[in-house]
Amino acid sequence: MVNKLEILDGKKVADASDKKMAKRVADLKNQNVTPGLAVILVGDNSASSIYVRNKKRRAEKLGINFQLIHFDDSITENELLEKIEQLNNDETVDGFIVQLPLPDHIDEEKVIQAIDSKKDVDGFAPKNVGNLWTGEPHTLPATASGIMMMLDFYNVDIDGKNVVIIGRSNIVGKPVAAMMLAKNATVTITHSHTKNLADVAKNADILVVAIGQAKFINKSFVKDDAVVIDVGMDHDENGKLCGDVDFDDVKDIVSLISPVPGGVGPMTITALMDQVIELAEGRANG
Ligand SMILES: NC(=O)C1=CN([C@@H]2O[C@H](COP(=O)(O)OP(=O)(O)OC[C@H]3O[C@@H](n4cnc5c(N)ncnc54)[C@H](OP(=O)(O)O)[C@@H]3O)[C@@H](O)[C@H]2O)C=CC1
Ligand SMILES: Nc1nc(=O)c2c([nH]1)NC[C@@H]1CN(c3ccc(C(=O)N[C@@H](CCC(=O)O)C(=O)O)cc3)C=[N+]21
């Protein structure tokens, strides 16, 4: 079978949206409002560090105020909660993120609940999660939104399609499921207890992989002509950044695939910046 490989080029989609977003930031600055984003990073998780570095770069490019608050692993839960309270009350900060995962001695649930849902640009606060499933959400998880924006850019039809998601995290798997369902996909969420994962995954017209295992998904998991979205931020045996999908193994059978790097990562940042700008627009309009 002859197959024309097409890449879901997240970098290209991101560059196109940057032009529109920079214009919105300029309009806000004319009204004396500068969008503000703060990020709390505890310790130095590798995927988090990549995310922080690229967010800073993109915020600076777009003219968004970016503030990194970097704590050592030894920070106490109370110190972290105090910082969150301060950001909740800081009028120059439109939105902020607490990078996950957090060290074991900190209760992630408690931290997320402390974030003012109006400033929760990750869309992780319980109120925003609830709204994601019932409609009219205030903020949305950036990775899932970024994936949907990318599929939209490439005119990938979702209605009635079989979407299989591998991974059920609150950051990626579950919000992707909610958004795909809202677009009328038939959604299957799989995880480490799923039996016959390859057979289930082979039903997917659109396969979304977010497990954090380098090159785990090879062509035995992928149907011919499937669309494959690789969320993983892993490292191969040479320490090089790679995804959860073995790109070279599947590239000849898929119809569309997002690479790592240059796929979902840049789209996550696009979706995040879009959300920060939107909150600042809300502030400017009173
Ligand atoms: N590009 C981006 O924008 C982003 C990238 N990432 C990256 O995506 C990956 C996943 O992140 P995240 O969702 O936070 O990960 P988590 O570790 O929170 O969750 C991983 C999920 O994958 C499942 N899983 C793990 N191994 C297997 C397996 N062998 N077979 C089936 N299911 C499996 C787990 O199952 P169970 O629940 O049963 O344990 C769990 O549901 C990471 O590499 C991360 O760095 C994350 C966020 C954003
Ligand atoms: N509260 C919280 N929300 C998150 O959304 C969140 C998090 N914590 N913790 C960590 C993961 C990981 N994540 C990434 C986003 C973009 C890139 C990214 O920019 N990737 C580039 C990397 C390119 C490079 O610089 O080498 C790419 O794929 O092209 C990476 C990783 C968000 N996460």
From TrEMBL:
Keywords: Amino-acid biosynthesis, Histidine biosynthesis, Hydrolase, Methionine biosynthesis, Multifunctional enzyme, NADP, One-carbon metabolism, Oxidoreductase, Purine biosynthesis. InterPro entries: Aminoacid_DH-like_N_sf, NAD(P)-bd_dom_sf, THF_DH/CycHdrlase, THF_DH/CycHdrlase_cat_dom, THF_DH/CycHdrlase_CS, THF_DH/CycHdrlase_NAD-bd_dom. Residues 141-281 form the Tetrahydrofolate dehydrogenase/cyclohydrolase NAD(P)-binding domain. Residues 8-122 form the Tetrahydrofolate dehydrogenase/cyclohydrolase catalytic domain. The keyword Hydrolase applies. It comes from the Bacteria. It catalyses: (6R)-5,10-methenyltetrahydrofolate + H2O = (6R)-10-formyltetrahydrofolate + H(+); (6R)-5,10-methylene-5,6,7,8-tetrahydrofolate + NADP(+) = (6R)-5,10-methenyltetrahydrofolate + NADPH. NADP(+) binds at residues 167-169. Pathway: One-carbon metabolism; tetrahydrofolate interconversion. Its EC number is 1.5.1.5, 3.5.4.9. Catalyzes the oxidation of 5,10-methylenetetrahydrofolate to 5,10-methenyltetrahydrofolate and then the hydrolysis of 5,10-methenyltetrahydrofolate to 10-formyltetrahydrofolate. Belongs to the tetrahydrofolate dehydrogenase/cyclohydrolase family. Homodimer. This is Bifunctional protein FolD. It comes from Companilactobacillus keshanensis. The gene is folD.
